[in-house]
Structure formats: C-alpha cells, structure tokens
Amino acid sequence: MDLGLEDKVALVSGGTSGIGLAISKRLSGEGCKVAIAGRERTKLERALAQINRAQGFVADVREPTQVKALVENVIAAFGRIDIVVSNAGTHLAGRLEDVESSAFQRHFETKVMGAWELAKCVAPYMRRQGGGRFIVIIGQAGKVPQANGIASTISNAAQHAFVKSLSDDLARHNILVNAVCPSRIKTPLTEGLKLYNEVFLGRSLEQQESRWGAEVPLGRWGTADDVANAVAFLASDRAAFIVGSNIDVDGGHQRSIF
Predict the structure, then answer these.
(1) Closest CA to 221 of 198, 205, 200, 203
(2) What is the C-alpha to C-alpha distance for residues 52 and 25, in angstroms, rounded to an integer?
(3) What are the structural domains, with CATH classification, of the chain?
(4) In whole angstroms, what is the distance from residue 28 CA to residue 22 CA?
(5) What is the mean pLDDT of each run of 10 residues along the chain (258 residues)?
(6) Which candidate, 256, 18, 250, places its Cα nearest to that of 146?
(7) Beta-sheet strand order (sheet of 175-182)
(8) Per-residue pLDDT, 34
(9) Which of 90, 136, 237, 246 is most buried as measured by Cβ atoms within 10 A of its Cβ?
(10) Confidence (pTM)
(11) Are 56 and 42 in contact (CB under 8 A)?
C-alpha cells in the first residue's frame, strides 16, 4: 500500500532509541526525510547511523528556546515540516510519596509542555503550507490510572486532553492531530519495568513476560515496530479523515472503552 509519504519531512522528538527510533526508521523507509531530535549527541549519532535520509538535531523539549530553534533549524535544512511525532519522555514510576515534586515537574515539562511548544512553533508553518500531521505518543497510564504511576497518569491524561483540544483548533487548517497509545511493547524502557500487580517483580523481562503476556488478549508483547506502523498510517494520506483520535497499540491489553 502506498502511504503517500515520499519526500515528506518528518520531525521525531525522542527519536534516538526504542519507539522513537523505530518510528524514525519506518518513516524513512516510506520515503520521508527524517529530522531526529534528542538531548544527547552520542545517541543521535548512533541513531543516524541506522537511518537513511535523516539528520540529527540536539534539543531539549523542556526548553522553549531550544524547541523554537529546533523547528527553525529543521525548516532551514529541509524547507518544510509535514509531520511531527512528539515522542519525548518516559514513564515515571512511584506512588505519591515516592515521587519528588521536582521530578514530576521535569516529567510534565517533557511530555506535556514539550508537545505544547512543538505545536506552537510548527503550526504556523503547517498553516502556510496547507496542512500537516501532529502525532503524540501517549502511554497507557493516561487511560488506566495507576497508584504506582501517578505522575505518568497525570501527564498522560493531560496529553490526551491536549490532543483533542488541539485537533479541534487545527483541523480547519488541514493539520490532523492524533495520538498513538502503546502498551506492553518491548523496548529498552520496559527492561526490568515493575508493575503494581506483577507477581514476578524484580525478575528479567523474559521471566516476567510469561505472566504479563497472559494479560494481553493476543498472548504476547508487541514491538516498537508495531507502534511505528500505526504512526506511519496516521501520518499518511490513508488517514485523511482521522482527527482527534487515539489508536491503541497494545494487543488488546487496555481495558478502557474510549
């Protein structure tokens, strides 16, 4: 299936490893010119070595001035931005008493304010060029609140509200805003990850998966490529009437009905 992505320009934040790297590879494979953003030059260089038609940009999305410079530099390098994938951020585990307020603030700034700044900076360009795609990667805690993941629950829920509100604002300009929501995906992040209801806490991912996989209707975990495939679809012409939505990539694991 031709997704119509040839020569589109895609900016992927948090694109140096895991899901972000898989997304960068997938979009490049579909013919996109990819701008990968990350905080560490060394990780950027490792990622770029694996991807054709890509350039790396050092930026911390928690810093508005760096986000502004990032967007301007990508425009200068490629002439336009057709697709933004806001993927920066990670899971912040812990109950209320476990999480320092400063850690929660940094987490929120990365996942929510980072996406906010990206949208503010890129939307004017997308309006002028007649449209674009803005896709946010949101973890499951935003739909399934967790006592031991309260910080991620709050930030991810805010991301869902942001996606829906932003889609209402930008749809009339043919800028389609959507979310992809992964769960039970094998990535560096999930190595050794502990969940509140897991009986094998502290064991290896392979040991844990025998139990965790039982919670997934498909009976297995997914891969970062599964998430990347959903992103490529939403970025494509095939998703031209999908806006303000979220696609769960979780093997049926999440129990929320909306």
Answers:
(1) 205
(2) 8
(3) 9-190+223-241 (3.40.50.720)
(4) 10
(5) 92 96 97 97 96 94 98 98 95 93 96 98 98 96 88 95 98 98 78 50 53 70 94 97 95 76
(6) 256
(7) 54-58, 33-38, 9-13, 83-86, 132-137, 175-182, 246-249
(8) 98
(9) 136
(10) 0.90
(11) no
